[in-house]
Amino acid sequence: MSIIQEFREFAVKGNMIDLAVGVIIGGAFGKIVDSLVKDIIMPLITVITGGGVDFTQKFFVLGDNPNNLQSLDELTKAGVNVLTYGNFLTILINFIILAWVVFLMVKMINRMRRKQEEVAPEPAATPEDIQLLREIRDELKNKS
């Protein structure tokens, strides 16, 4: 088998295609969650905390600030060492929401699978006399 044929079998297998589809859907889903956090959750948190809260602009100045700059953009352009913990908080909230949504999806899928298993009838148990006859048949075959 040539290496090209092996690669073709590998690439066409269901697992690889499923993985590619999962990555594409995951990327799109990430954009949806990012928009949910930026456009819906963060404004609600701002209202709940009394307004004026924007986590992306939260930072600590770690170095000297000789010009007494106050905005993150000005500090970054001036090359001042800044710890931007607000961006981390936003990404952390984004992750928690994404993990929660994935958890709910998996929970829903598992519930649907359990319902399908309940609907599928179990095969009827073999009557004891037929099972005994099968064992006798198998023993007779083994002796021959």
Structural class, by secondary structure, is mainly alpha
- Would you tell me the overall average pLDDT? 82
- List the strand order in the largest sheet: 1-2
Tell me the fraction of residues in β-strands, as a range: under 5%
How many E strands?
A: 2
CATH superfamily: Large-conductance mechanosensitive channel, MscL, domain 1
C-alpha termini separation: 44 Å
Q: Total domains, how many? A: 1
The helix fraction, in percent, is: over 70%
Shape: elongated
Which segments are poorly predicted (pLDDT under 50) over 5 or more consecutive residues?
none
Helix count from the secondary structure assignment: 5
| CATH architecture group name | Orthogonal Bundle
Order of helices and strands: HHEHEHH
Largest sheet: 2 strands, antiparallel
Subunit structure: Homopentamer.
GO molecular function: mechanosensitive monoatomic ion channel activity
InterPro entries: Mechanosensitive_channel_CS, MS_channel, MSC/AndL, MscL_channel
Keywords: Cell inner membrane, Cell membrane, Ion channel, Ion transport, Membrane, Transmembrane, Transmembrane helix, Transport
Describe this structure in words.
Belongs to the MscL family. Its main location: membrane. GO terms for molecular function: mechanosensitive monoatomic ion channel activity. It comes from Acinetobacter tandoii DSM 14970 = CIP 107469. It is a multi-pass membrane protein. With 144 residues, the protein is mainly α. The chain has one domain (3-123): Non-ribosomal Peptide Synthetase Peptidyl Carrier Protein, Chain A, CATH 1.10.1200.120. The protein is built from five helices and two strands. The chain has helices at residues 3-12, 14-48, 72-78, 85-119, 128-143, and strands at residues 60-61, 82-83. Strands 1-2 form a two-stranded antiparallel ribbon. Helix 2 crosses helix 4 (85-119). It is elongated. The model has no long low-confidence stretch (mean pLDDT 82).
